[in-house]
Structures are given as structure tokens and as C-alpha cells.
């Protein structure tokens, strides 16, 4: 019956697949392959809550087969079930018996949810099993970089390139590990690799962004721009982005989320106080999280989709990266107590036993009104950086699965304008609820801003908050290499090196100046 269901899935006959999976489960309700398959089919049909129930039923069986562990882990990650995911992948049979490239994917899942130590242990075991596997060497390099170990990261990336010269992510990461110099850089190799890469494919994008970064470090701005422009063109061809959808979503949020809506707050208690750090990507959110996590009472949960996960369950609708128009349409009828209860359960894992924890997902600016309603205990901090600085930093960052707006200057500026418009609305309907923090002020006087942020969060300021260059903790974002260099005051106005090429961006952002 399970084989019959799988064949129906291959034919995309979802109803037939569901019937076959359910027949299998009627015979054996603990049959994990059928539960996993049923969950996937239900998601395809838009039945998000039932899909979640099916995968949690599969998790309750605690399968030991490595293939089932991996399939289950993928679905648990899809639903942001972090505690279950960490336990699932911690089964020693997975690291010992799964193919090493699959182990590498497990490492990525663990790292993405902040389970850093578990990820390191799994990566170490994978490398021990096959020290010449390119995939496991690459993810091991990432973990070294996230932990502030750039030399070890470089060694892993170079070894991965030897194992697979076409795994161009290594070249991209090698460019970011340190500031390149005339004496030590990879420019010649990157140019050779670009001649070998398949035109228009993802590998070309990785190499172009790497070449841009290295040429920028060397001060060769004209050639750096050519590489960036080429990389943006390739990347834009791989993403789907419709600017008018963002404008429509902002319109809907402004109409739906007025002051009475956000003030009708849930009374469900939380086990720890979440501190939501939001704003545009590349606006300084990582730096602020690094400061807050230096406090003895604050855990850094990183970039999680935990709040989105509860909104999706409440609305019985899954969406990718940010909430969609249909969720806003259903917003008035959602059970925000259920959102709060589900979030409280997740917070027990996210907070790691501390009374406060950071939720640093920049795109939570879409959710600010829903956060305020479901989690009145939460603190919300919006990072604001100069629009040109922010947008150019987005333009020259190769994002993975997010920020699809960031590869065309006019689209990038348009998105920033919509972000600014929505934040003005949140500030208007939630006076005093959101703390605005200037990135320029943060880097100019970290202690003063740190004291202000601590007071807003209900914390006493600790000097360790300003020690962002400390060795402890992890940084798993695009700012990984920069975050441990301390508070740098030379990151602004970088775009001026490319001013002649950025006229479309500057013109579109003119209303903000």
C-alpha cells in the first residue's frame, strides 16, 4: 500500500496517494514511511495542520533507520520543530550509517536551528568517516567560521575544493573569511573557475560574488562592479519576485492591523522573554544580537522561523520566508492564544533555560503587529541603517533562499520603501512598543546604545555586551566573519566607490532623504 502511494506521488495524483497512505496506516498506524509520505501530501494539498499532526505522529515512533531519520528530520525542519529535530538527528545511527553527503545535510539542518554543538559532533564524525568528502568538509568549514576559527575554516574549504573542484560554494566562502590582500587572494583562481563554470547556473553566481568581494578588497572597484553585476543577473534569473506583491501585502497589513487589533493582546504567559530584532537584512541586526547575547541572562536563538511556524498552524496555511496575503486576510479570525501557547512551547528550547532570548530574523518586521498581539511580553527592536548603505550591502550579498528582491536596483529600493512604509505604520499603531535603534549610533557609541537597549528589555547593562569580538558564541549569518572583528566604524558609505553605477538605486531611494 505504501509503494502504491509512492507511485501515485510520482504521478502527482495527490488524492490517490493520500488514500493509499491512509489504507497503509489503517493496517499499521505506526508505519513511519506512510506517516512521512502522508504529511508531505497533505502539505501539497494545503492542509498544514493535518500535515503537522502526521509528522509528529511519525516522530512519536522514534525510527532508527537512517533513511527514515533523515526524511523525518526534513519534515521536522519544515515545521520548525527544533527540539524534536535535534533529538531526531542526535540518534548515533544516523551519523554512523547514513551516506556522508546526507550526514552533511543533517549538519546543515542542525546548524540552521542553532544546535551548534550537535552539528559540530556530527560533522566531526562525518569527516572521520570520509576525510575526502567535499560536502562534509564544506559544512565543517562553515562551522569553524561560525565559531570564530577562520584558519581552520580556510583549510576545510581548500580541502573541499581539492575533493570537488566544482563545489564553488567553497570559493565564495573563502572570499569572505578574511580581507584579501595583493599578496594573498584568489582572484586568478576565481577567473579560471569562471571560465569552467556552466553559464547561468548557480556556480557562476557563487564565483561572481566571490570575485566581486575579493576585487573590492583590493580596491579594483570597476572590475568588482562588473563581477557583481554579472552575479546579480545570474541570481535574478533563478528567483521569483513580484514587487507589486509586497506593496499589496503592506496595504493589507495597514488596513487589517489597526491599533485596536494589536492592543487585543493574548494573556498566555511565556517561559522566557523573546527579544525580536528586526529590520532590513544587512542593517546591523547581527551586531545587536551579538551585543545582547553577551548578557548573562540572554540566550541567542539566532534566525528562527518559530513565530511564523505558529502563525501557519493557526491559519492552517504554509508560506515561505514571510507571511502572505491570505494569512492577513484570515488574521482577524486567528486564535492568538493558540499562537502564544505554541510559541511558549518552542521558547522552552530557544531560551536554553535563560530568562531572555533573542529572535534575530530581520523579516519579522512583517509580523510585528501579530507579535505584539500574541506575545505582549516580547520586546521588539528595529535596526535602522542609512538606506543606501543598507541597500548596497544587500545588493552585494548572495542570499540563500531569502531576499529575492535584492538583485535589481529598482526592485531593491522598492522593497526598502515598502519596509519603511510598514514600519511607520507599526510605530503609529504601537507607540512605545518598538524600540528604534540607529546603526550609526550603535557603532559610534556601543555602550550608550547598549545601555538604552538593556533598559528597554528590562535588563541591567553589563559591560560584556560591548565585547562583540569575544570568542564565545556563534554567528551563522552573512556577517559571520565581520561580527568577531569588534564594532567597526568603517562600514558606511561603501557604496560611494560604485556611485556612478548606482544611480538607479539612489534615484529610487530619493524620497527617504
From TrEMBL:
UniProt KW Transferase keyword: yes
Superkingdom: Bacteria
Keywords in alphabetical order: Transferase
SMART domains (alphabetical): TPR
GO molecular function: protein-tyrosine sulfotransferase activity
Xref: InterPro entries: P-loop_NTPase, TPR-like_helical_dom_sf, TPR_rpt, TPST-like
Residues spanning the membrane: none
Key word Transferase present: yes
Identification of the protein by name: Uncharacterized protein
Species of provenance: Pseudoxanthomonas spadix (strain BD-a59)
Amino acid at each position: 500500500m505504501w509503494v502504491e502511494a509512492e507511485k501515485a506521488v510520482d504521478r502527482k495524483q495527490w488524492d490517490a496517494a493520500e488514500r493509499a497512505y491512509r489504507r497503509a496506516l489503517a493496517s499499521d498506524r505506526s508505519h513511519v514511511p506512510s506517516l512521512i509520505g502522508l504529511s508531505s501530501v497533505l502539505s501539497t494539498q494545503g492542509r498544514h495542520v493535518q500535515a503537522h499532526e502526521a509528522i509528529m505522529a511519525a516522530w512519536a515512533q522514534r525510527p532508527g533507520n537512517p533513511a527514515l531519520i533523515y526524511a523525518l528530520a526534513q519534515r521536522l525542519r519544515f515545521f520548525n520543530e527544533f527540539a524534536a529535530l535535534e533529538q531526531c538527528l542526535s540518534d548515533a545511527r544516523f551519523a554512523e550509517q547514513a551516506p556522508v553527503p546526507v550526514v552533511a545535510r543533517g549538519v546543515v539542518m542542525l546548524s540552521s536551528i542553532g544546535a551548534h554543538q550537535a552539528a559540530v559532533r556530527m560533522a566531526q564524525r562525518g569527516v572521520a568517516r570520509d576525510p575526502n568528502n567535499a560536502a562534509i568538509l564544506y559544512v565543517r568549514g562553515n562551522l569553524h567560521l561560525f565559531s570564530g576559527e577562520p584558519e581552520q575554516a580556510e583549510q576545510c574549504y581548500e580541502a573541499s575544493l581539492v575533493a570537488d573542484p566544482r563545489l564553488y560554494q567553497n570559493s565564495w566562502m573563502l572570499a569572505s573569511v578574511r580581507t584579501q590582500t595583493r599578496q594573498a587572494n584568489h582572484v586568478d583562481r576565481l577567473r579560471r573557475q569562471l571560465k569552467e563554470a556552466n553559464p547561468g547556473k548557480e556556480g557562476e553566481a557563487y564565483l561572481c560574488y566571490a570575485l566581486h568581494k575579493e576585487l573590492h578588497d583590493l580596491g579594483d572597484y570597476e572590475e568588482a562592479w562588473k563581477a557583481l553585476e554579472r552575479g546579480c543577473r545570474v541570481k535574478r534569473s533563478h528567483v521569483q519576485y513580484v514587487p507589486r506583491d509586497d506593496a499589496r501585502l503592506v496595504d493589507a497589513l495597514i488596513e487589517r492591523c489597526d491599533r485596536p487589533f494589536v492592543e487585543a493582546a493574548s494573556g498566555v504567559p511565556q517561559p522566557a522573554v523573546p527579544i525580536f530584532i528586526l529590520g532590513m537584512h544587512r542593517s546591523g541586526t547581527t551586531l545587536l544580537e551579538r551585543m545582547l547575547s553577551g548578557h548573562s541572562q540572554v540566550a541567542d536563538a539566532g534566525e528562527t522561523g518559530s513565530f511564523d511556524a505558529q502563525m501557519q498552524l493557526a491559519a492552517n496555511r504554509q508560506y515561505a520566508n514571510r507571511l502572505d496575503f491570505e494569512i492577513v486576510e484570515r488574521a482577524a479570525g486567528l486564535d492568538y492564544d493558540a499562537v502564544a501557547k505554541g510559541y511558549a512551547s518552542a521558547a522552552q528550547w530557544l531560551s536554553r533555560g535563560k530568562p531572555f532570548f533573542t529572535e534575530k530574523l530581520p523579516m519579522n518586521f512583517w509580523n510585528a503587529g501579530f507579535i505584539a498581539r500574541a506575545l505582549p511580553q516580547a520586546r521588539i527592536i528595529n535596526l535602522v541603517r542609512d538606506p543606501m548603505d543598507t541597500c548596497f550591502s544587500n545588493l552585494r550579498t548572495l542570499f540563500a533562499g531569502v531576499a529575492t528582491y535584492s538583485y535589481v536596483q529598482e526592485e531593491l529600493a522598492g522593497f526598502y520603501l515598502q519596509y519603511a512604509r510598514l514600519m511607520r505604520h507599526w510605530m503609529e499603531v504601537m507607540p512605545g512598543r518598538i524600540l528604534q535603534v540607529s546603526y550609526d549610533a550603535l557603532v559610534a557609541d556601543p555602550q550608550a546604545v547598549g545601555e538604552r537597549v538593556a533598559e528597554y528589555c528590562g535588563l541591567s547593562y553589563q559591560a560584556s555586551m560591548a565585547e562583540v569580538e569575544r570568542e564565545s558564541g556563534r554567528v551563522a549569518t552573512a556577517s559571520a566573519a565581520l561580527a568577531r572583528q569588534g564594532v567597526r566604524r568603517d562600514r558606511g558609505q561603501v557604496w560611494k566607490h560604485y556611485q556612478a553605477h548606482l544611480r538607479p538605486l539612489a534615484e529610487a531611494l530619493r524620497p527617504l532623504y
